[in-house]
Amino acid sequence: MLERKASISSYRDLVVWQEAMNLAEMAYRLTAGFPKDESYGLTSQIRRAGTSIPANIAEGYGRDSKGAYLQHLRVAQGSLKEFETHALLAERVELVDKAAVDALLTKCEMIGKMLRSLIRSIENSG
User: Do 9 and 50 touch, CB atoms closer than 8 A?
Assistant: First the structure.
């Protein structure tokens, strides 16, 4: 198992996971107002990508190899970019306003920086 700082005893202790969960919650709240005909379209895509981010952080944390953890963190990064793209498309097709998307993108930028920092930290650990 990977060594972790004493203050981190679970993936739930990771601030990046907590923020990713906040983003997933924002995704659900945002898409709750989407038209019913989007249920299998952008609603589903935004929710799936949004939940994939914290899920992959958690799954990677639970793996017993550095390589597997890093791979899951990179998948989380990919899901983050997918989420951003779906949010931008929702704005373009006028399902959400610019202010809502800007708030999401700000949160995404913060989470992306945290993921990159965590990846570098793991890559540089013994």
Answer: no
| Span 12-121 CATH architecture | Up-down Bundle (1.20)
**Burial (0-12, 13-18, 19+ Cβ within 10 Å), 97:** exposed
pTM (two decimals)? 0.91
Per-residue pLDDT of the chain (126 residues; tens, 9 = 90+): 444 444 888 999 999 999 999 999 999 999 999 999 998 899 999 999 999 999 999 999 999 899 999 999 999 999 999 999 999 999 999 999 999 999 999 999 999 999 999 999 999 986
